Amino acid sequence: LIVRDMLGREVTLPAPPLRIVSLVPSVTEIVFALGGEARLVGRTDFCDYPAAALAKPSVGGMVNPNLETLVTLKPDLVVATDEGNRDETVRQLARLRIPVYLVHANRVGETLDLIARVGALTERQAEVPRVSGEMLRRIDAVRKAVAPFARRRVLYVLWPEPLIVPGRESMLTELIEIAGG
After folding, report:
1. Long-range CB contacts (< 8 A, 24+ apart) of 61-70?
2. 61: which strand partners?
3. Which residue, 59, 115, 141, 168, shows the most beta carbons closer than 10 Å to its own?
4. Is the pTM of this model over 0.90?
């Protein structure tokens, strides 16, 4: 089975993955939303939603996951992101012959693509329209709720020192715009 990740890389899997470690909080949340949590065998410390995710073993942080712990979980796939996980982690997993599927979702449209991809990886494709539709309905409800009001100027601070704010093409910026900012 050969799949292409969101960066266009070919990922070779012997079969659909049954033991997935997620190094990406949004992917962990999507796996649960799709009902594919039985395939999730590990997560990061930051994968804390839904609360049931906390019952899965943690491999540590996103930047420096504990690879020894990860290997003991015997994953047949690790899902990582090009924004939050280190290249070195991906290289080490490749040396250990653990397939890595990289994701990249900075906009609502990319998130819909991510939901479909996670649905395929977890063989939960039938749930993709429900989860995607729910997200789009919530976005539409927010747009309608804020439509009568003047747009507000917003500064979202990710980190105070050094000052880090989301860029114009980030998901946070898009969501602030959707919410009337």
Report:
1. 62/23, 62/24, 62/25, 64/89, 65/23, 65/89, 67/92, 67/93, 67/96, 69/42, 70/21, 70/42, 70/98
2. none
3. 59
4. yes
Contacts of 162 (CB under 8 A, 6+ apart): none
* Positive or negative: CA dihedral 180, 105, 75, 13: positive
pLDDT in tens, 25-72: 999 999 999 999 999 999 999 999 999 999 999 999 999 999 999 999
Q: What digits encode the pLDDT tens for the residues 65-117? A: 999 999 999 999 999 999 889 999 999 999 999 999 999 999 999 999 999 99
Cβ within 8 Å of residue 12, ≥6 positions away? 1, 2, 99
Rounded CA-CA distance 141/2 in Å is 38
Whether 172 and 166 have beta carbons less than 8 Å apart is answered as yes
Q: Tokens 């012959």 identify what position?
A: 97
Q: In this structure, how many other beta carbons lie within 10 angstroms of the beta carbon of residue 152?
A: 10
Please give the angle made by the CA atoms of 114, 45 and 105, to the nearest 5 degrees. Answer: 20
Residue with the two structure tokens 């943690």: 58
